[in-house]
Amino acid sequence: MRQFNRQSRSGRIMLAVGLGALVLGASGCTRIRTHQGYQVDKLLVDSVQPGVDNRASVEGTLGRPSFVSQFGPQDWYYVSRDMRSLAFANPRPVSQTILHVRFDAAGNVVAVDRMGLEQVARISPAGSKTPTLGRHRSLFDEIFGNIGAVGAGGMGGGGSGPNGGGPNGS
């Protein structure tokens, strides 16, 4: 009877270890969701009105922008993005909101624009090489291409002085 108890206890331990390993292994395949940037509150965003609000009221309502236009302080941007990925895969955007607040010279709101995922550029690389413009040179052209180019006419070689001598005329 005592031997049966030891076997059942070791069986339970092995079962617990097996279940623990299964849970850890399955957790590597879970979806990972992340949020980057500004937390969009639709009610606050809708409260910003062109012709009514100014820079101070927009900053008081929405907070500081994610970034300001580099070509003058007339444009403020609030960027929000939700990403999703599997454990080791590259993350991809699920939703995105870019709130673009435009101001006039006096600092009053002129327009509030919203953009979404339609503005995300999808870039797919073409293989392992980047296409470039210009000459296509082989390895041997790169290595031996300068042979004969050194000392070409007008490149500072000897024999250019008077009497056919060097630069001092000797």
UniProtKB/TrEMBL annotation:
Pfam families (alphabetical): BamE
- Which InterPro entries does the record cross-reference, listed alphabetically? BamE-like, BamE_dom
Q: Which residues form the Outer membrane protein assembly factor BamE domain?
A: 37-111
One cellular-component annotation, GO: outer membrane
* Keywords of the record: Membrane, Signal
Record's keyword annotation contains Oxidoreductase: no
Residue ranges of the TM segments: none
Name of the protein in its database record: Outer membrane protein assembly factor BamE domain-containing protein
- Name the source organism: Sphingobium ummariense RL-3
